[in-house]
Each structure stands twice: as C-alpha cells, then as structure tokens.
Amino acid sequence: MRNFSNWKCSLASVASPTDGVFDPLPAKIIEEVRGRVAAHLDAHAGESVTAVEKAGTLDDAARDALVSAVGDLAKELAAGLEPKAAAS
Question: What ranges make up the beta strands (E) of 1-88?
C-alpha cells in the first residue's frame, strides 16, 4: 500500500490553485489551509478521502469533492481574517 500521508496537503497545494480556489484570497490563507487541510478533508469530505485511500487513485468525482472542501476551508479562514483586518 502506498503512503498517502501527505496527499491531502499536495491536493491543497497543487490542485486547488489550478481550480482558482485561492485566487480571490490573501496569500497567507494558503499556509493556514496547509495546516488544517487534512483534518478538514477528513471531516468534510470523508467519503472521498476513504475512496482515495482505498483505491490509491483520484477519480474526477473525488477530486471535485476534495477541491470543493479545500475551497470551503480557504473561504472560512479568509472570513475569519476580515474582522481582524477591520479592527486594525
């Protein structure tokens, strides 16, 4: 069996930018996402995570679900920055 310990971070680093997930967001969000992506994917796209880990491949449906979950996380983190920016 392959080691997939870093595949979730790889998805966030490679697939999501090509899908425009981070385009409207501040650059510092990428580091925040990297730190939280594995747990977020497990919690919010668990079925796709399990499918990838079992099959060792990433089909289009799983990829779409995972990229969507990464996008949701990025937006959630960016929204958390807005009140801090307004208070500064």
Answer: none
